Amino acid sequence: MRSWKLFPKESSVARYVDCYWFLEKKQEDVSFERPKLNPDPAAHLILAETQQPYRYSQGGNSFKGHGNHWMFPHCKTIEIDHSKPFQIVGIKFHVGALYSLKFTAPQEILDQVIDIDIRKLFQSDLFVTAEVLSDAINAPQICRDKLDNFIKPQLLECYDDKHSELVRRSLKLLSSTSICNIGAALHCSQRTIERSFLKVTGFTLKQCHSMNRLESILEYLYQLDSKRIDWADIAAHFQFSDQPHLIRYLKSTIGVTPGEYARERNLAIDIYGNFE
Asked: What is the pLDDT of residues 86-107, one digit of tens each?
């Protein structure tokens, strides 16, 4: 398996795009066939060949199709069918970026996977997914630069209003400031922040903080051997009141207890590494 992650070179693009990533699985690669994606408040635009199938499962819902598609923010774990070889490029947007990019209201696209006409999206007949994938394999930085160039013109129509600006400032504080103190730090009411956050992202501050916290925990666990995980230490490290609190948290966010997670290690980060 091959993977990489690169950040936008153009500052105007970096304002809305978090990173670009690439993942390839060949016929001879052996890995978990149905890894799971943890909840994610960010949207990903997935680029794949027209004939490349995709399938995602979330609870009783199933999303399937071929080629390019949106994977919108999701607050529940999603299972991916990676039983066949594939090559995909992902464009990960910052949390709330779709609001400024004038896509559908965030509340209407949560937990959805939708096919996309990529040339229509980028308003260019010059965009060829096969060429992007070829560059991703042979010249990742060229791939990054080309994606920057295709995305940059679309940003001319972006509009950041008072809500998106407030959310951007809130997100910078979310990892270091308690939710109840963010209003005071930004000199506005907590109710105003909560209202803008829900309008722009489709999530509450608490939901987004929980997903960001989970990502940090999983990145930390990825570095540890399953047999050497001390869950009491993990609970203390991430400031849970006790180990039972951590157990309840993992059960509610990824659907398994710490013990089950340690045995299975079936999340995408465990299968492919911290490429994305």
From this structure: 999 999 999 999 999 876 556 6
